[in-house]
Amino acid sequence: MSGRSEVQILSPRRGSDYGADLSPRFLFRIGKIMAERYPFDQIESKWQKYWEENKTFKASDNLTEKPKYYILDMFPYPSGAGLHVGHPEGYTATDIIARYKRMRGFNVLHPMGWDAFGLPAEQYAIETGTPPAIKTAENIATFKRQIQSLGFSYDWDREINTTDEAYYKWTQWIFLQLYKKGLAYEAEVAVNWCPELGTVLANEEVIDGKSERGGHPVIRKPMRQWMLKITAYADRLLTDLDDLDWSESIKDMQRNWIGKSEGAEVNFPINGFDLSLKVFTTRPDTLFGATYMVMAPEHPYVQQITNPDQLESVEAYRVKAERKSDLDRTELAKEKSGVFTGAYAVNPVNEELIPIWVSDYVLMSYGTGAIMAVPAHDTRDYEFAKAFDLSIREVVSGGDITEEAFTQIEAGVMVNSATPDASFSINGLKPSVAIKKTGEWLEKTGKGKIAVNYKLRDWLFSRQRYWGEPFPILRDGDDVIPLSDSDLPLTLPVLDRIKPSGTGESPLANAKEWLEVVDPASGKVYKRETNTMPQWAGSCWYYLRFIDPQNNDQAWDLEKEKYWMPVDLYIGGAEHAVLHLLYARFWHKVLFDLGYVSTKEPFQRLVNQGMILGMDGEKMSKSRGNVINPDEVVGQYGADTMRLYEMFMGPLERSKPWNTSGIEGVYRFLNRLWRYFVNDEGGIIDLDDAQPDTETLTMMHASIKKVGNDLDALAFNTGISQLMVFSNHLRALNKVPKSALETLLMLLNPFAPHIAEEMWSLLGHSDTLAYKGWPEYDESHLVKDTVKLAVQVNGRVRAQINVEVDAAKEAVLELAFAQESIKQHVQGKTIIKEIVVPNRIVNIVVK
RNA sequence: GCCAGGGUGGCGGAAUUGGUAGACGCAGUGGAUUCAAAAUCCACCGGUGGCAACACUGUGGGGGUUCGAGUCCCCCCCCUGGUACCA
């Protein structure tokens, strides 16, 4: 970069607002403006090129030299819309920490990649004929260009892409591990079938009975699906949360999702059949209050036990329930529906015969698919009993069951709860105690047992799509034959045209040659799976591939894994708080059990960045027209300003609105810095080589301390504020000490690395700031000689005094009472108390 | 309904965790500079009263603890995110 004069010719402003006016007057104006703006575009491209050419940010594979720090972003799905200002928020935060940790002497792993399988590219292919691979590559190129324009310090040699064969080879390999461990199985599942999209959707992709994408209607249809047995890990996924450094709210979301509840399983013999209806309840204490039972419409016993004269109405109800989409279920949720089977069950505690009903308020997918109904102490049962005039019996006193169900566990006392022979009674107990006692009794008598249930369901792991990882299996009729490792990867066939099969199978059903595999020895024909894996698959383990991205022999090297794992800091959007993080944790635990990874959890510290809202305070969306384009911001203000502003807006984890004049503020800060310290010849102004004055020294060391502490706490906004305070202080000096300016640049470097590097080099340094040691602060410079104390009278500040640090109470009070304003407020009053908090405050209480 | 987080100037947000509320920035006002505007620089900037020193008041609302509360306790209101017939 040459001198300032050249800088003035090349305007950083894209001059569109000036039109074609080239009058002398206009040129004069341009000249003035340019003199006032620092040449960020030249500086930024210069340093980005420098970092790239020197591979400045390459993570070292020397696994012993330095302590490691693994800092990870949630890698993006490269959509056609390009980067959104929300993306760089998290990326900037991680980049600042990555740069900070490098300066702190860590070997930093900070990689980026692409979660590139997914429905949009496939839909685009169906609409336009463009192969998903082509469209995906284009999108990635755009994302990469945009991300690189912000000067992030990724180690690009480790870039990965989930749609690369070399990558998904190992995704398939992990699937085989799961399969071999018995954690992958096939099942006929009533799934969310969307005729419009020609695919089955996961629950999380269905919103109010419509597809999340496109809003098409969704109905339920049974299909053969791959499932992963995540429920086998439910308990570990729950308990291992405790040791993680994640926000409580995210941990709670996961806990709720796993939904562990403790209670009992109870068997109710069915009258006249050699069957018993098993139910799960969290309130075994209320067994004596069970006045009827309910089975889910899909319950296997329904047809068997239904009385012949009820058969017609039960069957009609069952069919109706089956057809109901989720939307219908929600809509009808307000009113309970159901039908009597004509059959009765025997309540094991009192031998009473109670009617068995069928209703869709009981779900087949939770517990046993049947419940004992205790209308007096369960709101749902209460509503149902009221609707169908079933009896309601109080077994916990303390509420008014003529009004509503009484559901409290700590209040209330058990009543009407003893077996006819009086051998078992819980009368008089608190429900919480009765729950335990009943559980023990059920175990002892064999009428039931203590049990635990989870809300978490097994993971529906197949999609009827082309653009996903093919399953590495062959099919021989109903038999499943896994491919051997040497047959991996099983690559996607290249299709001339991707179109729905129409049968509900994926477009792969159209690829006849790919689909059928002939065994050359026997001539036997096997078929491939037409389902592909969901998008979650690739993102479940990408953090492991970053450790060893080019390895062709194994998914990752075990030694490297031991060194780099766990991820020390993982930052991403809260939308992945549950599913992605739960699925990835599940795979990680499986890999841990198999000995492929050394930690039981993958992500030690997790932070969710808040959303960046539009200027109107609303969520950014095309329809609202409030979307901010990062390219425009970078073009107009530069990457350093963009980075700084995104961090200055407010705490990382909170949602906050974008504000264009706010960005002007940080832009002015960088401009002032440049303008003040860089002279007209493009060099640094004359600096003072002498030791800074006391005040400057204090400011300098206080800044080192505060910025460092704030970075450790991810409190970027207050760190930047301190940089502004420090720089304002330096600008007010007659002569700026060189050491102070150097310190400022080092502190600024993680936040605004381009301008920091440029000014650092203008100071005559030939090294990069990237590995410059982070400055150390000296506590002795932070200790002041005197301190300003507020003097309060009755809690109101009436004066301020300067005293020596740790001054004696007597001396402080003497000075305080000497103040005119204090005398005034104390005069003629009785002093009740004199409080002196050393170096903090004085409070005189009078009456 | 349930779970979690949050309500501080005109705006984004600070506040050493009980010790001078409003750091830093934006917007605004006044001044310098300019033929003029923009940019830049300086000053002011919660509200009410006062020429002023200053006084009163003020962190969603109401109570409480304390010499002292944005911060701790109790009750209530509002906003955001998650979840929803999970027995």
Give the radius of gyration. Answer: 35 Å
Task: Give the full name of the CATH homologous superfamily of one domain.
Answer: Valyl/Leucyl/Isoleucyl-tRNA synthetase, editing domain
- Secondary structure class reads alpha/beta
Order of strands across the biggest sheet? 2-1-24-25
CATH class of one domain: Alpha Beta
CATH topology annotation of one domain? Isoleucyl-tRNA Synthetase, domain 2
Q: Which CATH architecture of one domain is right? A: Alpha-Beta Complex
> Which sheet architecture does the biggest sheet show?
4 strands, parallel
The coarse overall form would be globular
Give the overall pLDDT as a whole number: 89
Proportion of helical residues: 25-40%
Regions with little confidence, pLDDT below 50 for 5+ residues: 1-35
Distance between the termini: 71 Å
Number of strands: 31
Helix tally equals 28
Beta-strand residue fraction = 15-25%
